[in-house]
């Protein structure tokens, strides 16, 4: 219940930021979660730069005391989007190869022996890569397969809690991460519905003197529907994050 209240506060806070920082996306589009502009080719850029970002639930288990976890509701992109996006024809899906930078923000919430641990961290994603299948320009809707090929970021040196906190995901690292995107014509551009089903790994080493001193571990998990405005019925990991996301679909 304590963690549920924290997560509820986090979601409300993120929604409030979106309302203030991106009123055109949230207030003016009726039932649309996000509308992105046409890129001049009868479609929209991918990955889409929506202020809500891709959001989902990860966790750290390995290396912690039995019964303890670090829950990690996370957002990729968000208000910062995907700067430096470059799209070129080709790739294994036959459509586009996309390279980009972004930011992964994680809300770290402890359970068990770490109940009460509460911290938000952000790490840069420098060499992100994704692929998308062909789509028919100007058609609506445009539904196409995608793949998150590489996503890796870690906290910079000198963090007070972690000598290492690194997140790795993507098919290119041997962790299958297929996805799907639908773009629907809407006033002002294209309404977005997008997700990846990612396999991820979180590696950590605690800093001396910090709460995780002497601890290290590597947790691998699967995050179903790492989603951006995804309105399909989605099976989610059990827990409060799945319940909260269902409220705002």
What does this structure look like?
This protein has three helices and eleven strands, in the order ααβββββββββββα. Strands 1, 2, 3, 4, 5, 6, 7, 8, 9, 10 and 11 form an eleven-stranded antiparallel β-sheet that branches. 13% of the residues lie in helices and 45% in strands. With 249 residues, the protein is mainly β. Strand 4 and strand 5 form a beta hairpin.
Poorly predicted tracts of residues: 1-29, 232-249
Indicate the mean pLDDT.
86
Largest sheet features: 11 strands, antiparallel
Strand content: 35-45%
Distance N to C terminus: 22 Å
The percentage helix is: 10-25%
SS element count, helices: 3
Number of strands: 11
- Assembly of the depicted chains: single chain
Q: In terms of structural class, how would the helical and strand content be classed?
A: mainly beta
Order of helices and strands: HHEEEEEEEEEEEH
> What's the number of domains?
1
Query: Shape from CA axes?
Result: elongated
Alpha carbon gyration radius: 18 Å
What is the topology?
Layout: H1 2-21, H2 23-26, E1 35-36, E2 54-60, E3 70-76, E4 86-89, E5 96-110, E6 118-132, E7 142-154, E8 162-169, E9 178-186, E10 189-206, E11 216-228, H3 240-247
Antiparallel strand pairs: 1-10, 2-3, 3-5, 4-5, 5-6, 6-7, 7-8, 7-9, 8-10, 9-10, 10-11
Comma- or semicolon-separated keywords:
single chain; mainly beta; 3 helices; disordered N terminus; disordered C terminus
Quick structural overview:
This protein is mainly β. The protein contains three helices and eleven strands; from the N terminus they run ααβββββββββββα. The protein has helices spanning 2-21, 23-26, 240-247, and strands at residues 35-36, 54-60, 70-76, 86-89, 96-110, 118-132, 142-154, 162-169, 178-186, 189-206, 216-228.
């Amino acid at each position: 219940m304590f963690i549920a209240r924290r997560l509820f506060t986090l979601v409300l806070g993120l929604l409030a930021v979106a309302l203030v920082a991106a009123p055109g996306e949230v207030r003016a589009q009726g039932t649309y979660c996000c509308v992105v502009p046409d890129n001049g080719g009868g479609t929209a850029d991918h990955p889409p730069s929506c202020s809500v970002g891709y959001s989902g639930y990860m966790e750290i288990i390995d290396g912690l005391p039995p019964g303890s976890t670090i829950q990690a509701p996370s957002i990729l992109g968000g208000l910062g989007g995907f700067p430096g996006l470059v799209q070129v024809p080709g790739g294994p899906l036959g459509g586009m190869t996309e390279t980009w930078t972004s930011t992964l923000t994680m809300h770290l919430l402890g359970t068990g022996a770490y109940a009460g641990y509460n911290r938000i961290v952000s790490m840069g994603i420098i060499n992100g890569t994704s692929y998308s299948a062909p789509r028919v320009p100007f058609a609506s809707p445009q539904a196409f397969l995608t793949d998150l090929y590489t996503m890796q970021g870690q906290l910079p040196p000198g963090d007070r809690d972690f000598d290492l906190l690194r997140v790795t995901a993507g098919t290119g690292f041997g962790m299958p991460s297929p996805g799907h995107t639908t773009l629907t014509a809407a006033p002002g551009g294209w309404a977005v519905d997008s997700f990846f089903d990612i396999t991820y790994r979180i590696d950590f080493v605690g800093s001396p003197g910090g709460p995780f001193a002497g601890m290290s571990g590597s947790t691998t998990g699967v995050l179903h529907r790492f989603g951006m405005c995804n309105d399909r019925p989605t099976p989610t990991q059990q827990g409060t994050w799945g319940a909260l996301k269902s409220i705002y679909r």
